[in-house]
Amino acid sequence: MKYTGKRVSIHWVKAILAAAESLGIMPNKILAELRLNLDLEHNQPGFLSLEQTQAIWQKAEALSANPYFGLHMGTRVRPSYFNAVSYVAMTSDTLLAAYGNFTRFLPLISEGAVMDMVHEGQSVWVRFVPRPDETPFSRHQVESVVALILTFSRWLVGEEIRPSAVHFSHNPGPDMAEYRAVFGVEPQFNQEFSGIQIPRPFLSRVPIEADPGLNALHKSHAEQLLAAHQNTSWEAKVIQIIIESGHFALSREQVAERLNISTRTLQRRLQEEHTSFLEVMDAQRKQKAEALIYRTKKSLKEIALDLGFAEPSTFYRACHRWFDQTPNAMRAAHGESENL
Protein backbone atom coordinates (compact mmCIF):
# COMPACT_ATOMS: atom_id res chain seq x y z
CA MET A 1 0.00 0.00 0.00
CA LYS A 2 1.54 3.31 -1.06
CA TYR A 3 0.94 6.59 0.80
CA THR A 4 1.26 10.17 -0.34
CA GLY A 5 0.68 13.47 1.38
CA LYS A 6 0.01 13.71 5.11
CA ARG A 7 -0.02 10.56 7.25
CA VAL A 8 -2.19 9.28 10.08
CA SER A 9 -1.15 6.64 12.62
CA ILE A 10 -2.84 3.24 12.44
CA HIS A 11 -3.62 3.68 16.16
CA TRP A 12 -5.88 6.65 15.42
CA VAL A 13 -7.51 4.75 12.57
CA LYS A 14 -8.24 1.95 15.05
CA ALA A 15 -9.90 4.52 17.31
CA ILE A 16 -12.28 5.50 14.51
CA LEU A 17 -13.09 1.87 13.82
CA ALA A 18 -13.58 1.11 17.52
CA ALA A 19 -16.09 3.96 17.79
CA ALA A 20 -17.95 2.59 14.79
CA GLU A 21 -17.97 -0.90 16.31
CA SER A 22 -19.42 0.47 19.55
CA LEU A 23 -22.36 1.65 17.45
CA GLY A 24 -22.81 -1.75 15.86
CA ILE A 25 -20.79 -1.23 12.68
CA MET A 26 -18.10 -3.86 12.17
CA PRO A 27 -14.69 -2.49 11.13
CA ASN A 28 -14.34 -5.19 8.47
CA LYS A 29 -17.45 -3.86 6.72
CA ILE A 30 -15.98 -0.34 6.54
CA LEU A 31 -12.62 -1.57 5.28
CA ALA A 32 -14.18 -3.97 2.78
CA GLU A 33 -16.35 -1.26 1.23
CA LEU A 34 -13.28 0.94 0.87
CA ARG A 35 -11.15 -1.98 -0.36
CA LEU A 36 -8.55 -1.34 2.34
CA ASN A 37 -6.51 -4.29 3.60
CA LEU A 38 -5.19 -3.52 7.10
CA ASP A 39 -3.63 -5.83 9.68
CA LEU A 40 -5.17 -4.20 12.75
CA GLU A 41 -3.93 -6.85 15.15
CA HIS A 42 -0.30 -6.13 14.28
CA ASN A 43 -0.79 -2.40 13.57
CA GLN A 44 0.27 -2.70 9.96
CA PRO A 45 0.83 -0.60 8.02
CA GLY A 46 1.99 1.89 10.65
CA PHE A 47 0.46 4.86 8.82
CA LEU A 48 -2.29 5.56 6.32
CA SER A 49 -2.60 8.61 4.13
CA LEU A 50 -4.82 11.40 5.40
CA GLU A 51 -7.09 10.89 2.39
CA GLN A 52 -7.52 7.21 3.22
CA THR A 53 -8.33 8.16 6.81
CA GLN A 54 -10.84 10.73 5.60
CA ALA A 55 -12.52 8.02 3.55
CA ILE A 56 -12.77 5.80 6.65
CA TRP A 57 -14.33 8.68 8.59
CA GLN A 58 -16.87 9.33 5.85
CA LYS A 59 -17.83 5.66 5.57
CA ALA A 60 -18.12 5.23 9.37
CA GLU A 61 -20.25 8.36 9.70
CA ALA A 62 -22.53 7.31 6.85
CA LEU A 63 -23.02 3.75 8.08
CA SER A 64 -23.65 4.87 11.67
CA ALA A 65 -26.23 7.52 10.69
CA ASN A 66 -25.52 8.92 14.15
CA PRO A 67 -25.55 12.73 14.31
CA TYR A 68 -23.07 12.61 17.22
CA PHE A 69 -20.66 9.97 15.98
CA GLY A 70 -17.67 12.23 16.66
CA LEU A 71 -18.75 13.18 20.18
CA HIS A 72 -19.29 9.53 21.08
CA MET A 73 -15.89 8.60 19.72
CA GLY A 74 -14.21 11.33 21.77
CA THR A 75 -15.74 10.07 25.00
CA ARG A 76 -14.52 6.53 24.32
CA VAL A 77 -10.85 7.51 24.06
CA ARG A 78 -8.23 5.00 25.20
CA PRO A 79 -4.54 5.76 25.88
CA SER A 80 -3.49 3.11 23.35
CA TYR A 81 -4.92 5.30 20.58
CA PHE A 82 -2.02 7.71 21.15
CA ASN A 83 0.73 5.14 21.54
CA ALA A 84 4.07 6.81 22.50
CA VAL A 85 2.42 10.23 22.83
CA SER A 86 0.14 8.86 25.53
CA TYR A 87 3.04 7.69 27.70
CA VAL A 88 4.71 11.11 27.58
CA ALA A 89 1.47 12.84 28.56
CA MET A 90 0.65 10.34 31.33
CA THR A 91 4.00 10.77 33.09
CA SER A 92 4.14 14.59 32.80
CA ASP A 93 4.39 16.57 36.06
CA THR A 94 1.26 18.67 35.44
CA LEU A 95 -1.77 18.70 33.17
CA LEU A 96 -0.38 21.81 31.47
CA ALA A 97 2.88 19.98 30.73
CA ALA A 98 0.86 17.06 29.38
CA TYR A 99 -0.91 19.41 26.95
CA GLY A 100 2.46 20.79 25.84
CA ASN A 101 3.82 17.31 25.19
CA PHE A 102 0.68 16.28 23.36
CA THR A 103 0.81 19.26 21.01
CA ARG A 104 4.52 18.72 20.31
CA PHE A 105 4.20 15.05 19.43
CA LEU A 106 0.83 15.23 17.63
CA PRO A 107 2.49 14.47 14.24
CA LEU A 108 3.11 10.93 15.52
CA ILE A 109 -0.69 10.55 15.68
CA SER A 110 -1.71 12.64 12.69
CA GLU A 111 -0.16 15.13 10.31
CA GLY A 112 -3.60 16.30 9.31
CA ALA A 113 -3.93 18.93 12.04
CA VAL A 114 -2.06 20.95 14.64
CA MET A 115 -2.86 21.75 18.26
CA ASP A 116 -1.72 24.78 20.22
CA MET A 117 -2.29 26.50 23.55
CA VAL A 118 -3.28 30.12 24.02
CA HIS A 119 -3.25 31.67 27.50
CA GLU A 120 -6.21 33.94 28.17
CA GLY A 121 -6.67 35.46 31.62
CA GLN A 122 -7.03 32.69 34.19
CA SER A 123 -7.41 29.91 31.63
CA VAL A 124 -5.78 28.26 28.64
CA TRP A 125 -7.36 27.48 25.29
CA VAL A 126 -6.34 24.15 23.76
CA ARG A 127 -7.11 24.68 20.08
CA PHE A 128 -7.45 22.15 17.27
CA VAL A 129 -6.71 23.33 13.73
CA PRO A 130 -7.35 20.90 10.82
CA ARG A 131 -4.95 21.00 7.88
CA PRO A 132 -6.50 18.70 5.28
CA ASP A 133 -4.84 17.75 2.01
CA GLU A 134 -7.99 17.87 -0.09
CA THR A 135 -11.08 16.64 1.75
CA PRO A 136 -12.27 19.08 4.47
CA PHE A 137 -12.63 17.75 8.00
CA SER A 138 -16.18 16.85 8.91
CA ARG A 139 -18.00 18.17 11.97
CA HIS A 140 -17.61 14.73 13.53
CA GLN A 141 -13.83 14.73 13.15
CA VAL A 142 -13.44 18.07 14.89
CA GLU A 143 -15.93 17.27 17.65
CA SER A 144 -14.23 13.95 18.35
CA VAL A 145 -10.87 15.63 19.01
CA VAL A 146 -12.24 18.39 21.24
CA ALA A 147 -14.25 15.82 23.22
CA LEU A 148 -11.26 13.51 23.61
CA ILE A 149 -9.09 16.37 24.93
CA LEU A 150 -11.50 16.68 27.83
CA THR A 151 -11.96 12.92 28.26
CA PHE A 152 -8.22 12.27 28.21
CA SER A 153 -7.61 15.14 30.66
CA ARG A 154 -10.07 13.64 33.13
CA TRP A 155 -8.44 10.25 32.71
CA LEU A 156 -4.94 11.70 33.29
CA VAL A 157 -5.71 13.38 36.61
CA GLY A 158 -8.50 11.09 37.80
CA GLU A 159 -11.06 13.79 38.51
CA GLU A 160 -13.83 15.73 36.86
CA ILE A 161 -12.65 18.71 34.84
CA ARG A 162 -15.19 21.30 33.74
CA PRO A 163 -14.14 23.59 30.89
CA SER A 164 -14.82 27.31 30.99
CA ALA A 165 -15.95 27.29 27.37
CA VAL A 166 -16.00 25.21 24.20
CA HIS A 167 -15.83 26.67 20.68
CA PHE A 168 -16.47 25.11 17.28
CA SER A 169 -15.96 26.76 13.92
CA HIS A 170 -18.79 24.75 12.31
CA ASN A 171 -22.58 24.59 12.63
CA PRO A 172 -24.05 22.62 15.55
CA GLY A 173 -25.74 19.26 15.52
CA PRO A 174 -29.51 19.07 16.07
CA ASP A 175 -29.57 18.73 19.89
CA MET A 176 -27.61 20.92 22.34
CA ALA A 177 -28.33 18.44 25.15
CA GLU A 178 -25.81 16.02 23.62
CA TYR A 179 -23.08 18.66 23.79
CA ARG A 180 -23.96 19.68 27.35
CA ALA A 181 -23.84 16.04 28.44
CA VAL A 182 -20.29 15.68 27.12
CA PHE A 183 -18.77 19.06 28.04
CA GLY A 184 -20.86 20.23 30.99
CA VAL A 185 -21.28 23.58 29.19
CA GLU A 186 -23.06 24.59 26.01
CA PRO A 187 -20.55 25.12 23.19
CA GLN A 188 -20.55 28.20 20.97
CA PHE A 189 -20.62 27.49 17.25
CA ASN A 190 -19.48 29.31 14.10
CA GLN A 191 -16.50 30.69 16.02
CA GLU A 192 -13.06 31.62 14.68
CA PHE A 193 -11.54 28.36 15.94
CA SER A 194 -12.38 25.01 17.52
CA GLY A 195 -11.06 24.30 20.98
CA ILE A 196 -11.66 23.93 24.69
CA GLN A 197 -10.90 26.44 27.46
CA ILE A 198 -9.50 24.92 30.67
CA PRO A 199 -9.50 27.01 33.89
CA ARG A 200 -6.03 27.63 35.29
CA PRO A 201 -6.56 25.80 38.63
CA PHE A 202 -6.90 22.53 36.73
CA LEU A 203 -3.67 23.06 34.80
CA SER A 204 -1.51 22.46 37.88
CA ARG A 205 -3.17 19.11 38.60
CA VAL A 206 -0.66 16.25 38.77
CA PRO A 207 -1.42 13.25 36.53
CA ILE A 208 -1.97 9.97 38.36
CA GLU A 209 0.97 8.35 36.56
CA ALA A 210 3.35 11.33 36.89
CA ASP A 211 6.95 10.12 37.10
CA PRO A 212 9.95 12.35 36.22
CA GLY A 213 12.24 9.41 35.44
CA LEU A 214 9.77 7.61 33.21
CA ASN A 215 8.77 10.88 31.59
CA ALA A 216 12.39 11.52 30.59
CA LEU A 217 12.58 8.01 29.12
CA HIS A 218 9.28 8.28 27.25
CA LYS A 219 10.06 11.78 26.03
CA SER A 220 13.44 10.68 24.68
CA HIS A 221 11.67 7.83 22.92
CA ALA A 222 9.03 10.17 21.46
CA GLU A 223 11.69 12.66 20.33
CA GLN A 224 13.49 9.90 18.50
CA LEU A 225 10.27 8.72 16.92
CA LEU A 226 9.43 12.26 15.85
CA ALA A 227 12.89 12.82 14.37
CA ALA A 228 12.65 9.54 12.46
CA HIS A 229 9.09 10.36 11.40
CA GLN A 230 10.17 13.69 9.94
CA ASN A 231 13.38 12.36 8.41
CA THR A 232 13.31 10.80 4.95
CA SER A 233 16.63 8.93 5.21
CA TRP A 234 16.51 5.15 4.96
CA GLU A 235 18.34 4.82 8.25
CA ALA A 236 15.63 6.90 9.92
CA LYS A 237 12.92 4.74 8.34
CA VAL A 238 14.56 1.59 9.69
CA ILE A 239 14.92 3.19 13.14
CA GLN A 240 11.23 4.10 13.17
CA ILE A 241 10.19 0.54 12.35
CA ILE A 242 12.46 -0.87 15.08
CA ILE A 243 11.05 1.54 17.66
CA GLU A 244 7.44 0.99 16.62
CA SER A 245 7.88 -2.79 16.84
CA GLY A 246 8.81 -2.51 20.52
CA HIS A 247 11.42 -5.27 20.28
CA PHE A 248 14.75 -6.14 18.65
CA ALA A 249 13.87 -9.46 17.04
CA LEU A 250 13.18 -7.97 13.62
CA SER A 251 15.10 -9.41 10.71
CA ARG A 252 16.41 -7.48 7.73
CA GLU A 253 13.79 -9.23 5.60
CA GLN A 254 10.93 -8.20 7.89
CA VAL A 255 12.01 -4.55 7.87
CA ALA A 256 12.36 -4.53 4.09
CA GLU A 257 8.88 -6.01 3.76
CA ARG A 258 7.40 -3.25 5.93
CA LEU A 259 9.14 -0.67 3.75
CA ASN A 260 7.72 -2.30 0.61
CA ILE A 261 11.19 -2.84 -0.87
CA SER A 262 13.42 -5.87 -1.42
CA THR A 263 16.06 -6.86 1.09
CA ARG A 264 18.75 -6.17 -1.49
CA THR A 265 17.39 -2.67 -2.13
CA LEU A 266 17.31 -1.93 1.60
CA GLN A 267 20.90 -3.08 1.93
CA ARG A 268 21.96 -0.89 -1.00
CA ARG A 269 20.10 2.18 0.29
CA LEU A 270 21.74 1.88 3.70
CA GLN A 271 25.16 1.40 2.12
CA GLU A 272 24.62 4.65 0.21
CA GLU A 273 24.13 6.31 3.63
CA HIS A 274 27.36 4.66 4.89
CA THR A 275 25.67 2.28 7.29
CA SER A 276 24.09 -1.18 7.37
CA PHE A 277 21.11 -2.91 8.92
CA LEU A 278 23.27 -4.57 11.58
CA GLU A 279 24.89 -1.23 12.49
CA VAL A 280 21.52 0.49 12.81
CA MET A 281 20.13 -2.32 14.96
CA ASP A 282 23.25 -2.34 17.14
CA ALA A 283 23.06 1.43 17.67
CA GLN A 284 19.41 1.15 18.71
CA ARG A 285 20.21 -1.64 21.16
CA LYS A 286 23.00 0.45 22.65
CA GLN A 287 20.76 3.48 23.13
CA LYS A 288 17.96 1.41 24.63
CA ALA A 289 20.40 -0.40 26.91
CA GLU A 290 21.73 2.85 28.34
CA ALA A 291 18.21 4.14 29.00
CA LEU A 292 17.07 0.92 30.68
CA ILE A 293 20.18 0.57 32.83
CA TYR A 294 20.18 4.16 34.09
CA ARG A 295 16.50 5.07 34.12
CA THR A 296 14.65 1.93 35.19
CA LYS A 297 14.85 -0.58 38.02
CA LYS A 298 14.49 -3.58 35.73
CA SER A 299 16.81 -6.47 36.50
CA LEU A 300 19.73 -6.90 34.15
CA LYS A 301 18.31 -10.24 33.07
CA GLU A 302 15.06 -8.50 32.09
CA ILE A 303 16.98 -5.83 30.20
CA ALA A 304 18.95 -8.49 28.33
CA LEU A 305 15.70 -10.11 27.21
CA ASP A 306 14.17 -6.73 26.28
CA LEU A 307 17.16 -6.12 24.02
CA GLY A 308 16.80 -9.46 22.30
CA PHE A 309 19.76 -11.24 23.90
CA ALA A 310 19.16 -14.93 24.55
CA GLU A 311 21.79 -15.05 27.31
CA PRO A 312 22.78 -12.43 29.91
CA SER A 313 26.42 -13.17 29.12
CA THR A 314 25.89 -11.93 25.55
CA PHE A 315 24.39 -8.72 26.91
CA TYR A 316 27.38 -8.42 29.28
CA ARG A 317 29.83 -8.61 26.37
CA ALA A 318 27.80 -6.13 24.31
CA CYS A 319 27.87 -3.58 27.16
CA HIS A 320 31.63 -3.98 27.45
CA ARG A 321 31.92 -3.33 23.71
CA TRP A 322 29.51 -0.34 23.79
CA PHE A 323 30.49 1.35 27.02
CA ASP A 324 33.84 -0.24 27.94
CA GLN A 325 32.34 -1.39 31.23
CA THR A 326 29.88 -3.93 32.56
CA PRO A 327 26.18 -3.14 33.21
CA ASN A 328 26.84 -3.77 36.93
CA ALA A 329 29.56 -1.13 36.88
CA MET A 330 27.28 1.31 35.07
CA ARG A 331 24.58 0.92 37.71
CA ALA A 332 27.10 1.08 40.52
CA ALA A 333 28.22 4.46 39.20
CA HIS A 334 24.61 5.58 39.65
CA GLY A 335 24.39 4.20 43.16
CA GLU A 336 22.78 0.86 42.32
CA SER A 337 24.37 -2.51 41.52
CA GLU A 338 23.03 -5.94 40.72
CA ASN A 339 24.59 -9.26 39.86
CA LEU A 340 23.72 -10.92 36.60
Nutshell version of this structure?
With 340 residues, the chain is an alpha+beta fold.
Key traits:
two-stranded antiparallel ribbon, 340 residues, alpha+beta, 17 helices, H-NOX domain, globular, 4-stranded antiparallel sheet, Arc Repressor Mutant, subunit A
Task: Kindly describe this structure.
The strands form 2 sheets. This protein has a 4-stranded antiparallel sheet with strand order 3-4-6-5. Strands 1-2 form a two-stranded antiparallel ribbon. It folds into 2 domains: about 5-205, H-NOX domain; about 230-335, Arc Repressor Mutant, subunit A (Orthogonal Bundle). Helix 1 (about 10-20) packs parallel to helix 3 and helix 1 (about 10-20) crosses helix 4 (about 70-75). Strand 3 and strand 4 (about 125-130) form a beta hairpin. The protein is built from 17 helices and 6 strands. The N and C termini lie far apart (about 45 Å). It is globular, with a radius of gyration of 22 Å. The chain is α+β, with helices and mostly antiparallel strands and about 350 residues long. Helix content is about 55%, strand content about 10%. The model has no long low-confidence stretch (mean pLDDT about 90).
Per CATH, which architecture of the largest domain?
Alpha-Beta Complex
Stated plainly, the CATH topology of the largest domain is called H-NOX domain
Strand content: 5-15%
Unreliable spans: none
Average residue pLDDT = 89
Largest sheet: 4 strands, antiparallel
Count helical runs.
17
Number of domains: 2
* Strand runs, count: 6
Percent range for helical residues?
A: 40-55%
Taking the alpha carbons of the first and last residues, their distance comes to: 45 Å
The ordered string of helix (H) and strand (E) elements is EHHEHHHHEEHEHEHHHHHHHHH
